[in-house]
Design a protein that fits this description.
The chain has helices at about 5-20, 25-35, 40-65, 90-100, 105-120, 120-130, 140-145, 165-170, 180-185, 195-215, 230-240; strands at about 85-90, 170-175, 190, 230. It contains 11 helices and 4 strands. With about 250 residues, it is mainly α. The termini are far apart. Helix 2 runs parallel beside helix 10 and helix 4 packs across helix 11. It has one domain. This is YkgJ family cysteine cluster protein.
Length: about 250
């Protein structure tokens, strides 16, 4: 099988930077439709959260078509699930509210996994939580811990909350030989669509802000939750302990 080389990936990504124009209406339209709907506030927020995350996927697919690239990430390939995933408190609350809507069987599997995870990974988690997520060296040092994401099923190597996985998990893709991820903590070949964060966060904040300013009862502490960041495993720990809503 022929894989793209690093230089070719950079050239095609540069084509995206120079010639591809993101249509903000794809994101804005989701917000407008939800705000115009008759659904209750919680449903509007959770649908906005899930639809805007899905739109990130769709936008990446459009850019891949534009640049003739196809990711070589495959089911069960979980090397990127050992990177630090940093997310806002607002997103964490939305994600956990979405998980609560899962089937009882699925929730039980996730909760049982967490029971074991926080015991088995206690030492690594202590080291991870002590790292400054804003420090440039943290990404590599965290990856060296070989600490799996709490959402990763250890048996199937699949994400247990795939449809509501955070945006960093969606924007990191490999168009080269998947082996580079197995052989390197920080491979150069994978490409990150981090610039899509602006469109996603802008839209999700617009949605929650509009509801908040309209006097709706929202389940997040807006705007503080939108500016409070932590590692995904830390948010899971706080949610399990019932301390996620504490300031």
């Amino acid at each position: 099988m022929n894989f793209l080389k690093h230089k070719e990936i950079l050239n095609r990504c540069e084509k995206i930077n120079q010639s591809y124009e993101i249509d903000e209406q794809f994101f804005d339209g989701i917000v407008d439709d939800l705000l115009d709907s008759e659904m209750d506030t919680e449903t509007v927020i959770l649908q906005g959260f899930e639809k805007l995350l899905a739109e990130v996927d769709h936008e990446i697919e459009r850019m891949e078509d534009f640049s003739s690239m196809k990711p070589n990430c495959f089911m069960g390939c979980a090397f990127c699930c050992y990177f630090p995933i940093v997310m806002t408190k607002m997103e964490a609350k939305m994600m956990f509210q979405s998980i609560e809507k899962f089937s009882d069987e699925r929730k039980t599997a996730i909760f049982n996994h967490w029971e074991q995870y926080y015991v088995q990974q206690e030492e690594k988690l202590t080291k991870a939580f002590a790292m400054d997520h804003e420090a440039p060296e943290t990404k590599l040092e965290y990856k060296k811990l070989n600490l799996p994401c709490p959402m990763l099923d250890p048996e199937t190597q699949l994400c247990m909350v795939y449809e509501v996985r955070p945006i960093p998990c969606r924007t990191y893709l490999n168009y080269s030989d998947p082996q580079v991820c197995a052989e390197n903590h920080m491979p150069a070949e994978p490409f990150s669509y981090e610039f899509l964060y602006t469109f996603y966060f802008g839209a999700i904040n617009e949605l929650v802000q509009a509801l908040y300013e309209n006097g709706e009862e929202v389940f997040v502490d807006y705007p503080m939750d939108a500016w409070t960041y932590d590692y995904l495993p830390s948010w899971v720990k706080k949610w399990r302990e019932g301390t996620l809503s504490e300031v």
